[in-house]
Amino acid sequence: MADLSQIVKAYDVRGVVPDQWDETLAELFGAAFAQVTEAEAIVIGHDMRPSSPGLVRAFARGAAARGADVTEIGLCSTDELYYASGALDLPGAMFTASHNPAQYNGIKMCRAGAAPVGQDTGLAEIRALAEEWREKGAPEPVAETGSVTQRDVLGDYAAHLRSLVDLSGIRPLKVVVDAGNGMGGHTVPTVFEGLPIELDPMYFELDGTFPHHEANPLDPKNIVDLQARVRETGADIGLAFDGDADRCFVVDENGDPVSPSAITALVASRELAKDPGSTVIHNCITSWSVPEVVKESGGKPVRTRVGHSFIKAEMARTGAIFGGEHSAHYYFRDFWNADTGMLAAMHVLAALGGQQGPLSGLVAQYDRYAASGEINSTVDDQAGRLAAIRTAYQGRAGVELDELDGLTVTAADWWFNVRPSNTEPLLRLNVEARDATTLERVRDEVLAIVRG
């Protein structure tokens, strides 16, 4: 029997099907989810992976056996599931492994109103129950088992997004979208329908085997096709979604990537125009430009750790209007503090279509510094390498260190952050500087210590 500690991660369940988990285990997870959330009803959705429908049916059986009525919304993006959880005020479960290869699948769970379920907010209890029941057998179904019904919420999801960002009055835009054979191919046509957008779809066929490229736009090799199409067709903008379409990446009219930090700053300025003085959350490795733009726009920047559970918790605590991460996760108060790449993309389209200039010119004001991007190094001793970096920079004049998330070292003209991966023997380095020469110097100096 598979070790559940290998598949129950910090924020979700994820593993290879059927080697690490299967429908039998999915049924136990469903029963445990219903019991831990004490839900009278839940909502479930899934991505396009071949294993998803069977896993959903099993999870629904388990939840119904504990007395929960189940609403299945079928094929959907992760943010569409969050919409359903928020709009219906129900706990939810999304079956997806995001950008992982075809043999993987997983479950992202939330409480009513799309509140996250992680290790400290129910996931550890769900795992413990599933382990117990796997060994001793699941409890007998309750006297009144729940029902299982189907419901399509795609139109309602699209209408909600369009009520938050009005695109009806923008100038006509030519938009290339690479869905990577993921769920963006399902949601984009409905969200964009009837808008002044000439849509050029790439890889919209739902195919969980990802025949064209991995559905992970964070890796530069996976946006090469999009960049080429934008240049070939003279499009105004290119958008790339990951497998479950909760993240969105942007390329400009030249096919050049726009950094998620620049998108965060742009969207923050738009949200703050609606509600001046609000808080905006950003993680500790977004660009200096993000808190600068937030302050310039009359908002209050709050810096937090990397990861959606930390961002969502800070948004709830501070009442923040918006939050953004370097990984292209964007969180909105108007969307139950949940992340939605689609809504961020719509903000970018509204900003672009609300003026006459190209996207490159529009985002230049938000892209102020030289950045390395995330550089991963395999190391034998994460803690030892981090300690060596701390020793090298501690006590230097004009340099500050903090350990909010990994180690951040800040000087007048540069900063860097080094974080250990939770799942692999890696250190992740991000460097930013006021110019490219300084960036290269600092990057090389830190990598020399990281890589020994």
UniProtKB/TrEMBL annotation:
Top-level taxonomic group: Bacteria
NCBIfam families assigned: PRK09542.1
Record Pfam families: PGM_PMM_I, PGM_PMM_II, PGM_PMM_III, PGM_PMM_IV
Keyword Phosphoprotein attached: yes
Name of the protein this chain belongs to: Phosphomannomutase/phosphoglucomutase
Keyword Metal-binding among UniProt keywords: yes
Annotated source species: Streptomyces ochraceiscleroticus
Family per record: Belongs to the phosphohexose mutase family.
Cofactor(s) the protein requires to work: Mg(2+)
Record domain Alpha-D-phosphohexomutase alpha/beta/alpha: where: 6-134, 156-255, 262-369
Protein keywords: Isomerase, Magnesium, Metal-binding, Phosphoprotein
InterPro entries named among the record's database cross-references: A-D-PHexomutase_a/b/a-I, A-D-PHexomutase_a/b/a-I/II/III, A-D-PHexomutase_a/b/a-II, A-D-PHexomutase_a/b/a-III, A-D-PHexomutase_C, A-D-PHexomutase_C_sf, Alpha-D-phosphohexomutase_SF
Residue ranges occupied by any Alpha-D-phosphohexomutase C-terminal domain in the UniProt entry: 374-447
